[in-house]
From TrEMBL:
Xref: Pfam families: DUF222 (PF02720), HNH (PF01844)
UniProt cross-references to CDD domains, sorted A to Z: HNHc
Domain HNH nuclease stretches: 335-387
Region (Disordered): 411-435
Domain of life where this protein originates: Bacteria
One example GO MF annotation: endonuclease activity
Similarity remark: Belongs to the Rv1128c/1148c/1588c/1702c/1945/3466 family.
Identification of the protein by name: HNH nuclease domain-containing protein
Amino acid sequence: MDATHLDTFIDALIDDLTPAPVPEDEADRRLCHLLDSPRRIVDEPALLAVLAAAVTARNVFDHVIAQAVAAAERAGIPARRHLRTGADLLTSIGVAPGAAYRAARVGRAAEALPALTAQQRLGGVGIEFADAVGKGVSHIESRVALSDDERAEVVTTLMIQATPSGVDKKARGIAIEKVKTQSVDDTAVPVAENTDLNDMSVVPTGDGRLSATLDLDVLTGEELLAALDPLCRPIPLPDGSPDPRPVGRRRADAFGQILRTYLSSSGRPMSGGVLPHVTLIRPAEHGVDSLGFGGPVSTATAELIACDSTLTSVLVDHSGAPLDVGRAERLFTPAIRKGLAVRDGGCAHPGCGRPVSWCDAHHIIPWEHGGPTSLDNGVLLCRLHHTAIHHGGWQVYIGPDRHPWFIPPHDPTGPEPAHLRSHARRTMTDLPTAA
Ligand SMILES: [Zn+2]
Ligand SMILES: [Zn+2]
């Protein structure tokens, strides 16, 4: 079948599968169009058959895409079009980057994995599963050499797993087993210590977040754990109840703290002649605030970033011109920071007290709303509690005692909860009027 036949087939298939517009009261008849059948499809076996057929068709088409893109790479087509890889070729015709890279990866791996390819041809294996098998095999082969027979055996074992993550887990198990049984070469670097196997992926997710995975040698892993450990400790809530953050959340918060500490140090490598910082692009008038790498952010987050300008060194208008009006006044001077450090002794949020070096200096009345950069308009907050102010409904003000006081999130129509003393004042009376 050449491409023309395929086009005709796809046209016919789409016509068959696309429901024609039907009146509202007959909406439940739409499914009839999915099968070439005049009767209403409401019974379970028929619906399941439609689903199974569609999944098989999807698997076959994904296989066709993977094979076609691998063939295009072998023929040198991406290079002729000034593209780097087959994945770029796919994105140029509208495939999302993640799916494009996966298709190219699965296509390239196909040749070495005939048993898997045979199943894909039949539509019995989804592309996510095929990708997991391919990755599993290369995970093992990066650690031990496999003969063709051994590789076929590995593929068979991986293919009986139920899910892509099951495949991944099994592959790691097989790799560990095979390494153990391999004849020991004294000069070889143990797998655990081999930095050549290190890998980090950073993938933007559909909702604008960033997902990362790490595969580290034992020493780098040790350094990661040593760096995270002291930063992961639970912080009790102001009322003394335990930190509600699960360990994964605390680890991620700790990792953020490591990044901020690193970014605020001066001994790090330059990028284009400047120290790389978080860049917030704020349109001067109307428009959406956005980050240099990450794209649009909410006003609350933009205000958090702009609140302490040690977090961002570049504020620009929509045309990219720096907005440096009054910048010097916006920054808390070292002298004011020192004063804040003496008064707050670290994060001022009740029950926190994280060290001064971890803290942002928060403008209580935002600078752009006329709030001065002064001791009486500043408060030291760790990132967790700075976020609680900008995002979480907490409020802070300077009391008559000239210390920060906090108001927990509450329904504005209901009674106001008791105001809480700053961390540094926790042993004093809780009457805001008492000095
Ligand atoms: Zn702030
Ligand atoms: Zn804090």
